[in-house]
Amino acid sequence: MEEPAPNYVQSVPLTDSRLDDTHIRSWRDKGFALVHDLLPQSLLTALKQDALAFYPAPNTKASERYTDFSSGQRFVFPSRSTAFNQITLHPALLQAVADLLAVSVLDLRLTQSDLWPKYGGSRSSNANDNTDQRIHCDYPNHSLVHPPEWDNPEAVEMIIYLNSNEECSGATAVVPRRGANDPAYPWPITQTPGVGDLDYVNDRLQAERYMAERDPKAAAFRAENLYSREVVANYRFGSVLLYRHDTWHRGRPVKPGTLRLAQNLTFTKSGREWLSPLHPGWSWSMYAQDKLMEKLIARATVAQRTVLGFPPPGHEYWSAYTLAAVEARYRAYGIDMTAYRQAL
Ligand SMILES: O=C(O)CCC(=O)C(=O)O
Ligand SMILES: [Fe+2]
Fold first, then answer.
1. Tens digits of residue pLDDT in 248-269
2. Which of 108, 218, 235, 266 could disulfide-link to 112, CB 3.0 to 4.6 Å?
3. Is residue 131 a part of any domain in this protein?
4. From ligand 1's centre to the CA of 172, what distance in Å?
């Protein structure tokens, strides 16, 4: 299969870091929105510096072990990079997700925040090579079930790019959904490697060869309706691609000799236990000597804490006793329990 010349995703500027109807409609109808100006450049620059200090430079021996798409749990929330934590819980980002899902920020939960390197040219013949991904939806390794009906989404995924397409290539491709009867979006989403009894194969050529053998109808569906209709997100430094667990998309090859850095996040509506966090629980690091997570909880806003699963003001968890106990745990780092006390 030849790579066709890409069509680009359209992007409309934001006003005051707030999504408008165009972005919200795009995400809800087509399955994605690309925004270039959601997050402050200074914070993104700080994050990129932290990531460059953490990940080996391209074309070095040390970079060779990063052949896959994840950081191997080494650059995940909560991180020693303050900028990473601040972006993860940035008010503009949380508000954007809340607007897409039409809920309050207090009804969001974080389930993924991970900063991945993608090195150009480090390609293997492995079926799981990540360079040139097969087209897929992300729900199978985020969810125990299947995304609900299209008009009732329960999660927002995003990729924050710390480079530009011009510099690194490898722009993510997405397939815009065209209404309820779109042949690219049949229900359920099963014609894809890794679902049901189909093997998980990541590499595009190997995945499509496998599909052609195992399920020729599905392979034809993928060629005719998915690959032929993909458009790519012409990303810049700081662009955010907002998409969904049921959006067809794929990662594409990064230019040899370059390193594309991207932060991947997922937020769900609260009470979705079937949507698994991708990392160890947020409290797992609470015995670390630097008290990173305790400080983060103490200094976070009420909304940010709630997004991490801390009980919101007014929750049945709170009593005079639990309030005093939680305050005792975090007092050393200056937690302000006023909002919880007032709601008792
Ligand atoms: O790296 C990209 O551009 C997309 C990655 C992706 O879709 C995935 O790993 O699930
Ligand atoms: Fe994906």
1. 999 999 999 999 999 999 999 9
2. 266
3. yes
4. 7
